[in-house]
């Protein structure tokens, strides 16, 4: 067994395309590996995926471990976990990061259980601090109903594992011509791991622009109940050529879809302009737009936490604020 202080990132891919979150984690992984004195590696799993290794290297990976097998063409929990756990047991990296996607949330705990280490899920920040003379990964999550941030450490077992929501970190700029090492790994996979098989994966038709790609996002909270619907919210977004998002209560009410929910249990975004309408601003929500360049908040409660996160705040009833706001924005765009 090779002991190392390397930082690993799971480079999730679907259909031969890298998931953005893996590249985001390479950015933070590079920072972490520099602080703990190791190197940065990506773990790539699938069938015929080796050509993706150059993209990972150009985004900062020193080494790419390619686990390639025709049986791994589609994601398979038991087989993927077994193959990656064997690799982790052989090299024992110091840190292993995965995206908190549907696949990452399913895969990470299985790997952690197989290698006998801890796992912190849905992190909103990662940083290295010394603890008793040892560089330790502090994994930050919201706690106590979203009112506090809690740091979790794994002082004994290795690797220190965490999942991070897409959008928390930025994608590093690609550097063409960067040299890196590609290590081909032949997994030891018994047929018992494939008692269930994925036969086909169908992609849903693309709808409106994903909120994580929009430059302007208008997010509605429970306070839009006073409007009796989302018409004015959509109207404001249309004027600004932006996307509509919302909080968990609006998802439960059926006014937004799950791919438009902001926050710790939804998406994390960083638009140029983020407008919050009728959301109190609990941490579980506000962590979803911390990277926004400018935040405008409207709420009728002057003590709402949302105003602490806003660059500009308007205290008032949405029924009185939105119509003139939309009217003035239309005039500005016309000019």
What does this entry look like structurally?
- This protein has 2 domains: 7-194, HUPs (Rossmann fold, 3-Layer(aba) Sandwich); 211-334, 3-Layer(aba) Sandwich (Rossmann fold).
- It is α/β, with parallel strands linked by helices and 335 residues long.
- Helix 3 (77-91) crosses helix 4 (102-115) and helix 5 (231-239) runs parallel beside helix 9 (318-334).
- The strands form 4 sheets. Strands 7-11-6-1-4-5-12 form a 7-stranded parallel beta sheet, sandwiched between helices. A 5-stranded parallel beta sheet has the order 14-13-15-16-17. Strands 8-9-10 form a 3-stranded antiparallel beta sheet.
- It contains 9 helices and 17 strands.
- Helix content is 27%, strand content 26%.
